[in-house]
């Protein structure tokens, strides 16, 4: 009898997880549809504060830089052209810069800059 109870709860848990996954997928599709409608498209968005964003918006062929904050939306400038940079052209993230700095710190022969030698991650 206890095995049936555990099996029932396991099936209910799996069902709840599947329904949550389906619901988030449906909501995610709905958000993408709201960002592009008719002649308006959000080309890029950058968070500059807790509730503040810079957005590049294409409205009927005009490319606008707008600021969005709780106080409202402000048109900052009209841009002549806009090209989104590929990920290779964007500045590197913290992890890649950190690993490069670690590589320069530790020489190829296993010695650190301060002269200590490392073997298997331990100082000798």
Question: Could you walk me through the main structural features you see in this protein, from its secondary elements to its overall organization?
Answer:
There is one protein chain. With 124 residues, the protein is α+β, with helices and mostly antiparallel strands. Among the domains are: 1-37; 39-85, no CATH class. Helix content is 37%, strand content 30%. The chain is built from two helices and seven strands. The protein has a five-stranded antiparallel β-sheet. A hairpin with a 2-residue loop joins strand 3 (53-59) and strand 4. Its main location: membrane.
Overview in brief:
This protein has 124 residues and is α+β, with helices and mostly antiparallel strands.
Q: Structural class per helix/strand content?
A: alpha+beta
Mean pLDDT over all positions: 80
Low-confidence stretches: none
Give me the number of helical elements.
Answer: 2
Major pleated sheet = 5 strands, antiparallel
Strand content: 25-35%
Share of helix, binned? 25-40%
N-C termini distance? 60 Å
What global shape is seen? flat
If you compute it from the alpha carbons, what radius of gyration comes out, rounded to the nearest whole angstrom? Answer: 26 Å
Helix and strand sequence:
HEEEEEHEE
Query: What is the total tally of β strands?
Result: 7
Strand order of the largest sheet: 1-2-3-4-5
Protein name: Flagellar protein
Subcellular location: Cell membrane; Bacterial flagellum basal body
Family: Belongs to the FliO/MopB family.
Main location: membrane
């Amino acid at each position: 009898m206890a095995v049936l109870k555990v099996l029932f709860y396991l099936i209910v848990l799996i069902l709840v997880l599947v329904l949550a996954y389906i619901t988030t997928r449906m909501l995610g599709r709905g958000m993408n549809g709201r960002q592009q409608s008719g002649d308006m498209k959000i080309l890029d968005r950058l968070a500059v504060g807790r509730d503040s964003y810079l957005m590049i918006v294409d409205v009927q062929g005009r490319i606008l830089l707008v600021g969005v904050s709780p106080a409202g939306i402000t048109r900052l400038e009209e841009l002549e052209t806009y090209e989104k940079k590929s990920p290779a052209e964007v500045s590197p993230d913290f992890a890649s810069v950190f690993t490069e700095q670690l590589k320069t710190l530790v020489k190829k022969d296993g010695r650190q800059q301060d002269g200590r030698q490392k073997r298997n991650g331990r100082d000798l």
